[in-house]
Amino acid sequence: MAFRFEHADHLYALLLIPILILFFLWVQRSRKKAMQEFGNSNLLAQMMPMYSKYKHTVKFILLLLGLSTVIIAWANPQWGTKREKVKRKSVDIFIALDISQSMMAEDIRPSRLERAKKFSQQLVQSLKGNRMGLILFAGNAYIQMPLTTDYAAAQLFIKSANPNQAPTQGTAIGDALDIAEQSFEEDNKQHKAIIIITDGETHDKEALAMAEQAAKNGLLIYTIGVGTPRGGLVPAIVGGREDYKRDNTGNPIRSVLNETMLRDLADIGRGYYFNLASSDPEQVTTTLSGEIDQMEKREFEARVFNEYESYFQWFLGLALFFLIAEFLISYKKNRWIGDKDLFS
Question: How far is C-alpha 119 from the chain's CA centre?
């Protein structure tokens, strides 16, 4: 079975929750300050014997739960109930994303990696209809997601990518090409492409040799440069504080975009090179999707859910329960609890 939200964009309404929490805390603080200015706390307690210290918080929590479940119901959670085989035509595409420490340089804002991740997510969106996979690389490369049509998973994996996922540091473009080649079907000679997104910091001669071999097997190679020729310092945590990566003499290391290598890779792979710092990302995605659309597509069989059952009514029921409970609970003390403070 497959779970999904029919209207996932409605979940953005959950952003109201932290805003309401901050507003509630501000109101509580203002109320407490006003009561302190009004008079002595012991005297006020005698004047208001039925005043409850915790009922405001309980009612607010119930209100938040009710609002949250209403929003979830609005997004309409669904489970797939019927699956069928369908035949599709597509190009097999790997996105190879550099997660090395040098990608944390801030010569393009907010950082090379953040810009690369945002571009990769746009790329997944524009290339829908094709099978896509994700390769992460630094000192070595590994498949984070095999070729699939699960675009939501691709977006999630890209969003969470970071240098901590790399066991060793470096820029192993050759490894990324090699692992991509091993992942395509052996008989696939003209329906495959790889998009390498990196600063190309290390001049990897092995990558050029691997690109030449992959191109002979029909792989199209596109490269996306992330960074500037001037370069930028690489942030690092040293002794618990923010600093920059330094060489053996103590001088900050400047990471520079290796455009020459990335151009060479694209030329060998009969693709194109783009620079995210000097190009419009939307124009780059449009150009890339146009190029890939012109490629001959390969037919494959996929099993997809074509019928879904909605479960919004369960969440509406929960919301109704929370809201009725909030309405029925008064602000006064419960006679069975008396003057006991449940949170003391």
Answer: 12
